[in-house]
Amino acid sequence: MTKPGQRRTLIVAALAVSAALPFVLTEYEATLASFTGIAAIAALGLVLLTGVSGQTSFGHATFVGLAAYTTAWMSRYGGWSPVAGLPAGLAIAGGTAFLLGLITSRISGHYLPLATIAWCASFFYLFGILPGLGGYNGFGEIPPLFPGISTGTAAALIGVILIAVTILAANLLTSRTGRAMRALAQSRIMAESVGIDTARLARSTFVLAALLAGLAGWLFAHVQRYVSPAPFGLSASIEYVFMVVIGGVSQLGGAIVGAAIVVLLRDQLNDLLPRLLGSSGNFETVAFSLAVIASLQYAPRGIAPAATSLWRSGNRLLNRPPPAKLGLPRDVSWPGLARPSTTTPPPTLERAAAHARSLPVRPKPPRGSLILQTTALEKRFGGLIAARSIDLAVHAGEIVALIGPNGAGKSTTFNLCSGALAPTAGSIRLLDQPIQGQGARAIARRGLARTFQHVKLLPEATVLDNIALGGHLRARAGFVRSMLRLDRTEEAALLQTACFQAGRVGLTDVLNAPAGTLPLGRQRLVEIARGLCLDPSIFLLDEPAAGLRLQEKQALAELLRALRDEGMAILLVEHDMDFVMDLADRIAVMDFGEKIADGPPGQIQDDPVVREAYLGGVA
User: Which end of the chain is more exposed for a tag (fewer CB within 10 A), N or C?
Assistant: First the structure.
């Protein structure tokens, strides 16, 4: 785990290396270092886009080219300073990405990479045929970054820019926005359920990646001092993908490692392979493909993560502290607080009060007031009726259980109430406001939290970060504040709230463990704690006791009773009849998509329809 002192040491060391470049590198080596840094900046954007948010792009070089051509044309023909070309290039690259993102942010599966290939090919030909851009031969005589700047100094400047961009990206990933970006890749349904606007976030991430590519394009134009369509075509975009795959698509350090490997290999292979094979051609592409195949075979997560894992294993054997792992959410430090570890208890909310403001708290509805009501609710999937004429009511300070055999329509009813599905007919009211047809995000904003029948977590993120994801709507920091670390007070409040909710469900001993390593029962507890971070008025729990041991079930029941006593409304689906009968204030029974009974546990147990049609079959 990276401490503040270790992070500062790492940054100072990187800056010192950059400052030394003009004095230790030949002009040729400095040129290679410059192009490695430029490629790494562009690849960082692809890590954020693909490795973090799960959006595959084979058109990344397009945005490098847009910024490169913009600044090159302005400085070559318009007489503008290269410095003026930076905001112009970023505006063109970012604006184009925004327009493309309006189309692609909702595309998923194999359609998204196909769309990126299409626009990459289109822009490649536009660069070659638009008047004033020099055709496919391009144009040169582009001014350098600064008059009289040496190759070594340019390499040092690019190194400093790369360090700054990496720090900003690392800050982003250790924030509310970074957690939301990771949720895009894992489960958009879950992300929407905690109030994340997934379409907008995907578009914003896409624009951010394009801006980093644009920054790389600006540097490329003034270092190369010549632009043509070739460095910005589909093959160049594939090279960026190679960089992050070889280096490690999930880590910021992977972009730097991958860029260095690809740039240096390409330089060597361009001379070596034609001599070995006796003919010229794009043989380096074949070599890169083989390198990717080997990487996927022996280091499937990339070289940087594999090297970090080996280093950590060696340190554990030598009983030394682990090294920094750049860009992962568990490596963040809180302002004035130590990040909780597996060996020290987390700081209490009282201690956090001196460092973090309180998060917004939702007004509690009066006890006994109607929170959720469905009337004649129906859902059809073609000719299949999954739910028919469902009338259901849940009040503040009440636990209602929805029971029934598999396929009875319970999860469908949950999905209708939470906005994951739109009803075919009927109405749903939450806090006396109609919500039928509204999306999960809008309903979460109104105070409804939920868990899922099949657990939906960020498996590689820590338990703490998974829980903090539930507080997304209770904070406001976005991309800029997160990257500049202006969100630390708010972030500390979020993490402290997550610690508190983790303690309520008995997870304080695993706060820093990856959520995917926990047994299924404890993963369900992570989901419950995440939902509590939303500060809901009503909590929908889908089989919360599944996978829990007896003592854990008893602790969960005590927690749910405490939440009920605080005035929260709870609607749960559960197959454990002992758990339900001992906990619920009222039980609704479903069978074949219809509600067949509704009443207190004793009445349900004595109901002859329930006895004959259902209860004995699942108890």
Answer: C
Q: Note the pLDDT of residue 277.
A: 67
d(CA 409, CA 590): 7
Question: What pLDDT is stored for residue 346 in this prediction?
Answer: 46
Binned at pLDDT 50, 70 and 90, residue 587 comes out as very high
**Phi and psi at residue 577, in whole multiples of 5°?**
-70, -35
Residue 322 and residue 228: Cα distance in Å, rounded?
45
Q: What is the mean pLDDT of residues 176-205?
A: 94
Where does a domain end: 202, 234, 266?
A: 234
Beta-bridge mates of residue 589: 403, 597
Task: Say what the pLDDT of residue 23 is.
Answer: 94
Which pLDDT belongs to residue 76? Answer: 92
On whether residue 324 sits in a domain, the answer given is no
* Mean pLDDT of all residues in 576-592: 91
In whole angstroms, what separates CA 443 from the centre of its chain?
21
| Nearest Cα to Cα of residue 237 among 111, 98, 50 | 50
Q: How many domains does the chain have?
A: 2
Pairing mode, if any, of strands 139-140 and 384-395?
A: unpaired
Q: CA torsion 608→609→612→617, rounded to 10°?
A: -110
Question: Does the CA dihedral 92-97-100-101 come out positive or negative?
Answer: negative
Exposure string over 451-461, b if 16+ CB within 10 A, otherwise e? bbeebbbbebb
CATH number at residue 386: 3.40.50.300
Domain span at residue 225 reads 7-234
Displacement of CA 384 from its chain's centroid (Å): 35
| Residue 306: predicted pLDDT | 73
Asked, for residue 348, whether it belongs to a domain, the answer is no
Q: What are phi and psi of 227, to 5 degrees?
A: -130, 145
pLDDT tens per residue, range 257-302:
999 999 988 887 777 766 676 666 666 677 777 777 887 777 777 8
Region 200-222: mean pLDDT is 96
**What does the pLDDT look like over 425-456, one tens digit per residue?**
999 999 999 999 899 999 999 999 999 989 99
Query: Using CA atoms, how far apart are residues 30 and 462, in angstroms rounded to an integer?
Result: 40
- How far apart CA 243 and CA 309 sit, in angstroms, is 19
Closest CA to 379 of 434, 417, 416: 416
Which H/E stretch holds residue 426?
Answer: strand 425-430
Give the DSSP per-residue string, 446-487: TTEEE--SS----TTSBHHHHHHGGGGGG----HHHHHTTTT
Q: Is the pLDDT of residue 483 over 70?
A: yes
The mean pLDDT of the chain is 87
Cβ-based burial of 155 (10 A; exposed 0-12, middle 13-18, buried ≥19): buried
Residue 162 lies in a domain: yes
Joined tokens for residue 540: 């929908």
**Which of 234, 256, 288 is the last residue in one of the domains?**
234
Residue 243 to residue 257: CA distance in whole angstroms: 8
Q: In this structure, what token pair is assigned to residue 218? A: 């600006």
Contact 196, 180 (CB under 8 A): yes
DSSP string spanning 37-69?
HHHHHHHHHHIIIIIIT----S-HHHHHHHHHH
Domain assignment of residue 54, yes or no: yes
| Average pLDDT of span 369-377 | 95
